[in-house]
Structures are given as structure tokens and as C-alpha cells.
Design brief:
- By secondary structure, the chain is of the alpha+beta class.
- The protein is built from 3 helices and 2 strands, in the order αββαα.
- The chain is rod-shaped and about 75 Å long.
């Protein structure tokens, strides 16, 4: 593999890792809470925590993140194959499938 091929593969792997980190951040780290006080005079309090972007937001971010991860892994595989074959020109995934 040439240096440019290695850097392309490493770049796509970095994109996949970054997408994983973004999804985990929004799903588990960025939390919001809501406290609903009971009627006055009682001591019971209900407190709930959840994702700050909401459940639907986590689903959207997760699906988009999965798509980015899949594309990044696919492009890393194509880049690795291309450079291993000695061909350093960029090959689209569609051209790779037709081969």
C-alpha cells in the first residue's frame, strides 16, 4: 500500500470512529432532566432523565450515524483494495461492484 492509500484508509476509519462518538454522545452523554413536583404539601417528587434531543432525535441521529459508518467502512475497503492492487486512482463504489 502506498502512503496516500494508507492515509485514505485511515481517514475513512477516522470518519467511522467520529460517527460512533457523535452517536454515543447524543444518545448517552448529552442528557436532559425534568422534575415534576407533586402537589404542594406532599414530599413526593418525580424526576426523569433522558436524551436532551429526545427519543426521536436519538433514533434519527442513530440511523444517520449508521449510514455514515457503513459508507465510511465501504470506502475504506475500496481504498484498501485499490491501493493493494497498485491502482492509486480513485474508484467509485459503483465501479468497484461492476468489476
Amino acid at each position: 500500500m502506498t502512503n496516500s492509500g494508507v492515509s485514505r484508509v485511515a481517514g475513512w476509519i477516522a470518519v467511522a470512529v467520529a460517527a460512533v462518538l457523535v452517536v454515543v454522545f447524543f444518545a448517552f452523554v448529552l442528557q436532559g432532566s425534568s422534575c415534576n413536583d407533586a402537589a404542594s404539601g406532599t414530599d413526593s417528587t418525580c424526576s426523569a432523565t433522558g436524551p436532551a434531543v429526545g427519543t426521536a432525535g436519538v433514533w434519527v441521529i442513530s440511523v444517520l450515524g449508521a449510514a455514515v459508518i457503513a459508507i465510511a467502512i465501504w470506502r475504506a475497503i475500496v481504498a484498501a483494495r485499490t491501493t493493494a492492487a497498485g491502482n492509486t486512482e480513485s474508484v467509485s463504489p459503483a465501479a468497484e461492484v461492476r468489476r
